[in-house]
Amino acid sequence: FVYGTLKRNCHNHYLLQGAKGYSATALQIDLYAGPYYPFAVRGHGSAFGEVYEVNEAILAQLDDLEGHPHYYHRELTSVNLIGGQTVKAWVYLNNKAYHYPRIANGFWP
Questions:
Q1: Any idea which residues carry the catalytic annotation?
Q2: Alpha-carbon distance 50 to 61, whole Å?
C-alpha cells in the first residue's frame, strides 16, 4: 500500500511500473505531512492511496527506497479496495510522523 511519492503521477512511481495497482484505503493508519513526503503510523483514521501487486524484486527496491527496516518499517495492514474487498498489504510506517502536522482527511497531497 502506497500513500506518498510512490503513487501514480508522483516522482517515485517509476519503481512500480508494470505492477497492477488499485485505489485503496488503509484502515487504522494516520498520515502526517512531512516536509517533502508523508509519514504513516498506526492510528484511528484512514489513509487513502493505492495498493500494488509486486514481486520480491520490486519489494526489495521499495525496501531500499524506504530505508526498511531502519527509517521506515514495513507492516501488514488491512486495506479496502474500491468495490469493498478487504486484503492485507504491506505499508511503510515511521514514528517520526508525530513531529509533523496530521493530515486529517487521509489524503497526501
A1: 66
A2: 17
